Amino acid sequence: VLSLPIMTSAGGCTLLTETIFNTIAPSAAAPYTYNGFCTAISAWNAANPTNQIFEEGTEMQQKHEIAAFLGNTLHESGEFQ
Questions:
Q1: How far is residue 11's CA from residue 9's CA, in Å, rounded to a whole number?
Q2: pTM of the model
């Protein structure tokens, strides 16, 4: 089982480290990279200050939300390739 610690970084990416992301999606290609993920979160949160993605609820709820998001998007995108 992969544990998703809450981590903060300057780019607005707050839920997982690049190491964990690359473990989950080792073959990720642009724009589905860790940097692309963080940029998308930052852009969304800047445009939606009252509806921030992956910022609501308890830490456990945030972990569930990010796990569900990554599981679905990995499946739908052919594992970010």
A1: 6
A2: 0.74
Q: What is the mean pLDDT of residues 39-46?
A: 87
Task: Tell which residue, 3, 40, 6, 7, has the closest CA to residue 24.
Answer: 3
Cβ neighbours of residue 30 under 8 Å, at least 6 residues apart?
36
Residues 6+ apart with CB under 8 A from 8: 14
Neighbours of 15 (CB within 10 A): 26
Indicate if the pLDDT at residue 9 is higher than 50.
no
Please state, in angstroms and rounded to a whole number, the distance separating the CA atoms of residues 32 and 74.
Answer: 9
Could you tell me which residues come within 8 angstroms of residue 64 by beta carbon, excluding any fewer than 6 positions away?
none
